[in-house]
């Protein structure tokens, strides 16, 4: 496919001089120069691809460097995953195809093709998803009384962190004969952020699209923006590093208005921003600051008390305290007969909110709003003039962490299949979601595609404090938003000792 694209590109460049000459009556000297330039660019692109670890430019595929498959024919690889019984949004769709009627067919086909490729390579191996309502409960029961029912599992990371401290999983780093965690199908940023004491009890990567689904961005209603700021190009403001938190609040205030004929602002009015209490933390993470990070010794330490961190937290909290002027919290919406997330999304879907802060799980849900104006993607805004990189907070709590439970009947087989599945997923499943579904179906313009590529998914941000939630530290922001308080210093001081105890317990658990 890569070679076909380059061939078509070159043919297009060759034809263009003829078209330009016919239309403009000019010679083809400049066009020939453009063609040479394009050829050079194509060669550079191919050379760059050839340097990507695990990528084979001859086949255009990523290939795991695995030893010979040594297990019997027709062997099943059983993966424990979440069903849609309880998790109506964050259920698994990328281990086995055709489990749910709501799954996009492009994703079903990609999963099917990935599994078929592995079956052909490895003695007709069968990949089986065992979908349950609660992965951590089932996994805990299996570990207490092993039956060999599961070769691997995909619990939420927020559950995996607790189970890992209880020695429920094998350390993936120990299976370096099979699993190469340096390869591009593993999320290096996540590993760098979350690895404590060189232990890797869970990892995320292309084996699941959930890491992308729980990444946070902002969507905006283009027609509503035009009514308050004609000619404004937010995409260009992003490129020029002018898309800031202050700019976002400024525009949100311009659009917010009481227009339902009733005194006071309510769910029925027009809002600059539709959000929730918990998403306030995202703006802090979007600044590049952390609640907890790692030091040079690889150990976690508290990071929420620097001068810049406190300034940013207070700025966000003070702005959210002025909620009636620009933002409505879906947590406070009642009387709609719907859950808070649906009610919050309704405001945007019904063209009554200029901005909506969401994870990508909400994008698929926008399809039902058939009267929704054209909208676009934006990264989370810059927080101050010292920041030159846009960060996209990732709610890794709800990302899936692949694990090998200590009850697995053959952990080497598990490790082999995990690496094989993850590398092939990069060839099929990730492109199906990112290119075919997200960009090909849900994205409305080329500028939004650029936002996704260069600004949103290029700098996904994780935080040890959010993922491990030491002593409930990630709840501090939410508590302060609820009370409309910016007294973050005393609030964090009240948490400090218990957070440090929890950090010390983690380090001790991972050192054993």
Total number of β-strand segments? 14
Percent range for β-strand residues? 5-15%
Give the proportion of residues in helices: 40-55%
Structural class label = alpha/beta
Shape: globular
* Strands in their spatial order, largest beta sheet: 10-7-11-6-12
The count of helical stretches stands at: 19
The biggest sheet amounts to:
5 strands, mixed
- The average pLDDT score comes to 89
Tell me the quaternary state: single chain
The end-to-end span amounts to 48 Å
Which runs of at least 5 residues are low in confidence (pLDDT < 50)?
Answer: 1-45
Q: Rounded to an integer, what's the Rg over CA atoms?
A: 25 Å
